[in-house]
Amino acid sequence: MKKILFVTSEVYPLIKTGGLADVSNSLPKALAQTGQEVKLVVPHYHALHFHAPVFERCTFKVGTHTVRLLETLLPESDVRIWLVDCPEYFGLPGNPYVDAAGNAYSNNAERFALFCRVAIEIAMNRVGLDWKADVVHCHDWQTGLIPALLSLEYQCPPTVFTIHNLAYQGLFNGLMAATLQLPSQLLSSDGLEFHGMISFIKGGIAYADKITTVSPTYAQEIQTPELGYGLEGLLAYRNQDLVGIINGIDDDWHPRTDPLIAKNYTIDTLVDKKENKKALQAQLNLPVDENVLLIGLISRLVEQKGIYMILDCLPELLDFPIQFVVLGSGDRGFEARLQEFALANAHKLSLTLGYNESLAHLIEAGADVFLMPSRFEPCGLNQMYSQRYGTLPIVRKTGGLADTVVDTLPSTLANQTATGFVFNDAHEGALLEAIKRAGVLYAFPESWRQIQINAMHGDFSWKSSAEQYLEVYEGI
Ligand code: ADP
User: Fold this and answer.
1) Is the C-beta atom of 18 inside 6 A of ligand 1?
2) Nearest residue CA, atom 8 of ligand 1?
3) How far is Cα of residue 276 from the mean position of the Cα atoms in its chain?
4) 124-146 pLDDT, tens per residue?
5) Position 94 confidence tier, pLDDT thresholds 50, 70, 90
6) Which numbered atom of ligand 1 lies nearest the CA of 382?
7) How far apart, in whole angstroms, are the C-alpha atoms of residue 174 and residue 193?
8) In this structure, are strands 3-7 and 37-43 parallel, antiparallel, or unpaired?
9) CB of 381 closer than 6 A to ligand 1?
10) Dihedral of alpha carbons 172, 176, 180, 181, sign
11) How confident is the model at residue 101 (pLDDT cuts 50, 70, 90)?
């Protein structure tokens, strides 16, 4: 049994801005089920939603700040969450990282440096909890100073640093080194310094005992200039300590039990999937037609997700006999252009702007294929949800998409491993070609059904991811 301190800046359902919150909910629970003792450390944001009682554990000083540590439980588990209460840093309502106008808080460096120092005090058993970590698992730039600062401690526990998305690095003005009182031995170009700035994520990458990221392909891609953001050299240097582990998906996403879909189904009752298609078409005022190829997309509407590729191929795509259902929000320019297409093609293209959990589930259940033409994708969730729902993903060959979807080829059809459609080039022509391939195959119901079954048999459980993380902890 290992004592794991799991340090994260967000955890569902208390607070969520992205996939990190889901991982921080599911992975600790899956680790606990393998017999490990996991404690989470999360900032006590004003915006937290509590699902269990909260009580005070202790109060201590870190630098000039007096910090209270509160405790609550992760819902549906015995996993404890320790909340770092420091109102001057975390007491603002709203998003953990940005203000109402979408700008990063001007004191993010101080906020998350304090968070890191508190996690270190806990890990080193210096706050009176009578608990010392065997391993500290840190996530993304907000926790990047932990491996760096902890490396200077006597008899420190080993650290694992997980990169969920290298695009977010926590870069701050070099003058912050003094403000944050960072020891000079950490400030070299082998350490936190990055082109004259201080990089929090580099603290994690340079000093953690092991580095993980959320898919094997992304682990390779971040060692290249294209997706390494200037850190590719350091990542390649640490190659031996870098592993990719695919995220699992939650059991909330299962067509057998999903309460948010029109009709539940399994591999054995796959015909019932059509009821969800009809319900989706009716709900979105599209012609109810069970034979037309229905394409789904649920996404942040941002550059990373390849939305520009979709916009470029829409004029031609809308000439095909298809229906296209889009749910998302993000870049105002992308939203406006999609809206123009939707207005002019209301019988084929349905656009829902905003965040809508229940519609997301119905799209997964009701669509025939699901589009994810991401420019890059560290792991991605929807391509795995889609496979569980027998909704064949059309994905670009990058990151976690490359690792979790098997392209439909004569060979993979024959050996029953095909689970979707994969294309290479980040270009609308390649995307359109993949959609055409799906359209052709859709006309052969027996083959289609076999691919659906292959996809629905996939193991995307957290159990298997947790076992891989455990191997990492044990390998240090
Ligand atoms: P990322 O974390 O980069 O946005 P992922 O595929 O890892 O991408 O996870 C995105 C998650 O957010 C998925 O569960 C997806 O269904 C959900 N999601 C994204 N946009 C919406 C939306 N507009 N409405 C409902 N769910 C959404």
Assistant:
1) yes
2) 380
3) 26
4) 999 999 999 999 999 999 999 99
5) confident
6) 6
7) 8
8) parallel
9) yes
10) positive
11) confident
Q: Is the CB of 238 under 6 A from ligand 1?
A: no
Q: Closest ligand 1 atom to the C-alpha of 381?
A: 6
Q: Which of 249-253, 406-410, 412-416 has the lowest mean pLDDT?
A: 249-253
DSSP string computed for 80-120: EEEEEE-HHHH-SSS-SSB-TTSPBPTTHHHHHHHHHHHHH
299 lines ligand 1 (CB under 6 A): yes
How big is the chain by its Cα radius of gyration, in Å? Answer: 23
Question: How would you classify the pairing of strands 392-396 and 421-423?
Answer: parallel
In the CATH scheme, what is the code of domain 3-248+463-474? 3.40.50.2000
Mean pLDDT, all residues of the chain: 97
Tally of CB atoms within 10 A around 453: 15
Using most ligand atoms within 8 A of CB, pick from 362, 381, 460 the residue to mutate for ligand 1: 381
Q: Is 231 in the pocket of ligand 1 (CB under 6 A)?
A: no
pTM for the model: 0.94
**267-460: CATH, from 3.40.50.2000, 3.20.20.80, 2.60.40.10, 1.10.530.10:** 3.40.50.2000
d(CA 303, CA 374): 8
